[in-house]
Automatic annotation (TrEMBL):
NCBIfam families: PRK09045.1. CDD domains: ATZ_TRZ_like. It comes from Marinobacter flavimaris. This is 5-methylthioadenosine/S-adenosylhomocysteine deaminase. Residues 65-412 form the Amidohydrolase-related domain. The gene is mtaD.
Length: 445
């Protein structure tokens, strides 16, 4: 009998349950996750870890599920400062009469810094370790995410009209190209291109967005088929459904993420399939704005990658991706008229490996396996509202909400410990949030 070689590593996490996401549907018990630097050195049974690793820190999680960090694939982070400001309205009234005027009045570099930090605090506390952002002053959002150590795809905005970040498409594209260049090698930030929607971006800038994506490899994220009005208006004015127009412009590609995708028919599904574009499902925003329903199970059955996002806190009104999964799973069953649609494990895949796939990063994110990046969360199941436990995956989707998240690590760095944020000064943040709320309430800037 030969003695095992003992390897030194940084952190050992002992998990009661471990859901690695891949292989699909797996729940492991009494496993250990070993972190060395920013990567996973091993995911092995605890007895094997005893024989093989010595770590400088051990975290015992005897009532917890450990899984990969969640990936929130669509949002407008700084809109957290507009949470609850304009409710119970349909999309175009909400945008035209409330949100766009407020953005015109309040958006500044400081608004983006404070609003993005508020969003990051909420997302970290509820299990998100990677988020996608599409908003103004992306260089500020990127800096905030980088400084906190949270992974983010940051899409620079592209629209036909002026906003606080630019005078029009030419300026957005030129600042956007510089933005991509500045952040393309960062270990936390994935700079990307954010043409807002088919109804706010004309053909010329859409084509330029595609050229920039081809040149840099940056992803494109766009709101698409959000409402019946959008599809009907485009069909009437342009004689084409929005998906068909974007396909003709070359914008639907494996680097493209189509957000919302309600009101879709067989021709839309076929274009998504042919082009390899991804769908980002935002069920709560779609419900709250009464935008429509995305046929998630049909898309998955067609082989299309579907990830999940919350959208901004002004149309949701929270950034809790576990809550979003619950809504997604419930809604998918009604839409498919099939209670087996979007099972708990499939929903968890949507918030992890499918998000990683949409980012083109599934080789290093979205599941727990040796060599992948150490983006990990733990959920404490010891609360009475999560007892008894027959199937931890069921609890994560159907009974849990994000506040049961007790720990998270991103790149091997602790971000949440025993439910507390380690890298955001919440008390100081709350003072700045209250200051913004005062100004927004009185509409004085
Ligand atoms: C180009 S910056 C982002 C822009 O999008 C607005 N927005 C927020 N939520 C939605 C949504 O659900 N559909 C369309 N546009 C949305 C946001 O207020 C910014 O102006
Ligand atoms: Zn959105």
């Amino acid at each position: 009998m030969t003695a095992d070689t003992i390897t030194a590593a940084d952190i050992r996490i002992n998990a009661r349950w471990l859901i690695p996401i891949e292989p699909a549907g797996t729940v492991l018990e009494h496993y250990a996750v070993i972190i060395q630097g920013d990567r996973l050195a091993a995911v092995i049974p605890q007895e094997q870890a005893d024989r093989s690793f010595r770590t400088r820190e051990t975290v015992d999680l005897p009532n917890h599920v450990v899984m990969p960090g969640l990936i929130n694939m669509h949002g407008h982070a700084a809109m957290s400062l507009f949470r609850g400001m304009a409710d119970d309205l349909p999309l175009m009234t909400w945008l035209n009469d409330h949100i766009w005027p407020a953005e015109g009045r309040f958006i500044s570099e400081q608004f983006i810094a404070d609003g993005t930090q508020l969003a990051m605090a909420e997302m970290l506390r509820t299990g998100t370790t990677t988020f996608s952002d599409m908003y103004f002053f992306p260089e500020i959002a990127a800096q905030m995410a980088h400084d906190t150590g949270i992974r983010a795809q940051v899409c620079f905005p592209l629209l036909d009209f002026p906003t606080p970040w630019g005078a029009g498409p030419e300026e957005y594209l030129s600042k956007g190209a510089d933005f991509i260049d500045s952040w393309k090698n960062d270990c936390y930030i994935m700079p990307a291109i954010g043409p807002h929607a088919p109804y706010t971006v004309s053909d010329g800038p859409m084509i330029e967005a595609v050229r920039l994506s081809e040149k840099t490899g940056a992803a494109i994220q766009i709101h698409l088929h959000e409402t019946a009005f959008e599809v009907a208006e485009a069909t009437e004015k342009l004689g084409q459904r929005p998906t068909a127009r974007l396909a003709d412009l070359g914008l639907l590609r494996p680097e493209t993420q189509c957000v919302h995708m309600t009101q879709i028919d067989a021709s839309d599904i076929s274009l998504l399939k042919q082009t390899g574009a991804h769908v980002i499902h935002c069920p709560e925003s779609n419900l709250k704005l009464a935008s429509g329903l995305c046929p998630v199970q049909e898309l998955l059955d067609s082989g299309i990658n579907v990830a999940i996002g919350t959208d901004g806190a002004a149309s949701n009104n929270d950034l809790d991706l576990f809550g979003e999964l619950r809504t997604a799973a419930m809604m998918a069953k009604v839409v498919a008229n099939d209670a087996s649609a979007l099972s708990a494990h499939k929903a968890l895949q949507m918030a992890t490996i499918n998000g990683a796939r949409a980012l083109g990063r599934d080789h290093e994110l979205g599941s727990l396996a040796e060599g992948k990046l150490a983006d990990i969360i733990a959920i404490d199941l010891s609360d009475p509202f999560l007892q008894p436990v027959y199937d931890p995956a069921s609890h994560l989707v159907y009974s849990n909400h994000g506040r049961s998240v007790s720990h998270s690590w991103i790149n091997g760095v602790p971000q949440v410990q025993d439910g507390r944020l380690t890298r955001i000064d919440v008390a100081d943040l709350m003072l700045r949030v209250e200051d913004w709320a005062g100004r927004i309430r009185t509409k004085a800037d």
